[in-house]
Amino acid sequence: MNIQLNAPKHLISCATAGHIVSVDVNVWTATKQDRGISNEVTTAKNASADAGRFTKNLLSNSSEHKALLNYRQSVYNWLQRMTYDWAGAMRLLPIINLERFKREYEGHEREFKRLLEAFILAYPGLISDAAFKQGDMFNISEYPSPQDVRNKFRINLFLTQVPANDFRAGGVAQALADDLKLHYEKQVTDIIDNVMRDASQRLVEIASRLSNSCTEVVNEEDGKVRRKRIFDSTLTHAREICETLKHFNLTGSTILSDAVSELEEAIDDVSIEDLRESSLTRSIVKESVDAMLNKFAPLKTPDPITASSQPEPIIEAEEENEEDFPSFAPLKSSFV
């Protein structure tokens, strides 16, 4: 007996409106626990052996190594901006942004590899420096070969379509099939509600930043007007999110559509130079954006669910083993 589990309409909408993506970034932290020193310290302090541990920084905070570790965070921030939560490390990418996403990922991939080559080139010298800085703690066997180090750094993109086909459960009782169907539909509905709530919040946040940038403050002492800095990225991000949400309104929210239209109209044909040079333009844009915010903020999707109160994971690196972040981390990465 085959029990057909039809995909919810939200999922069918997602299948045509987005792709599932994840990014793996693997790095080597260049740290090593020294049990000998740990035992010396705990013994000297009359403490139990498990009361503390000493971890060596093998590369003494080298700038080349730090650049790689920091770039991992840059990739994570970029992925968060471009996509929405789907499940664990998997993220939902609006299909309208697919071409830009792939182009920007390739740029991140090139930069990561450039930083890696710079680090590998400096690596032998960093070992020599460590021999002086670590004194009697130095142990050459703790330093992998340049090729082994290179293999510890990776960046990979995984991209797949949202499943849209019927799901079938063969040889199961009707009651179990019904339960699976209800669970499946609720799970997808919750995901979509979260995605659209996130999208609405992003729209409000960028509109608020734009309004704040257009604010002119009069100094009470001298009566002079103080203009706030207006960044290119603020106006660019406002246009990008408007373009995205025109094609990525998965719940068909008329409230969201109207908000997007009003923000888009407020910045239509306005350049960053206009905002920087014209007090009148700033005033008009601010008035229009504030009117949108007063009408629509906070935007809400239908039947909002309670946001998760799960704390951020605490991640520790093993001495010489690669390990992934927990599955619920937005960006899968490895510290070694």
Quick structural overview:
The protein is α+β, with helices and mostly antiparallel strands.
What is this structure's SSE topology?
Elements: E1 2-5, H1 9-17, E2 18-27, E3 31-33, H2 35-44, E4 55-57, H3 63-82, E5 84-87, E6 90-94, H4 98-134, H5 146-151, E7 154-161, E8 167-170, H6 174-213, E9 216-218, E10 225-227, H7 232-246, H8 254-266, H9 272-277, H10 279-296, E11 323-324, E12 332-335
Parallel strand pairs: 2-12
Antiparallel strand pairs: 1-8, 2-6, 2-7, 3-4, 5-6, 9-10, 11-12
Helix pairs in contact: 3-4, 6-7, 6-10, 7-8, 8-10
Folded structure, characterized:
It contains 10 helices and 12 strands. Residues 1-5, 165-172 and 300-336 have low confidence and may be disordered. The protein is extended, with a radius of gyration of 26 Å. By secondary structure, it is of the alpha+beta class. The two termini are 49 Å apart. The protein has helices at residues 9-17, 35-44, 63-82, 98-134, 146-151, 174-213, 232-246, 254-266, 272-277, 279-296; strands at residues 2-5, 18-27, 31-33, 55-57, 84-87, 90-94, 154-161, 167-170, 216-218, 225-227, 323-324, 332-335. A hairpin with a 2-residue loop joins strand 5 (84-87) and strand 6 (90-94). 24% of the residues are buried. Strands 2, 5, 6, 7, 11 and 12 form a 6-stranded mixed beta sheet that branches. Strands 1-8 form a two-stranded antiparallel ribbon. Strands 3-4 form a two-stranded antiparallel ribbon.
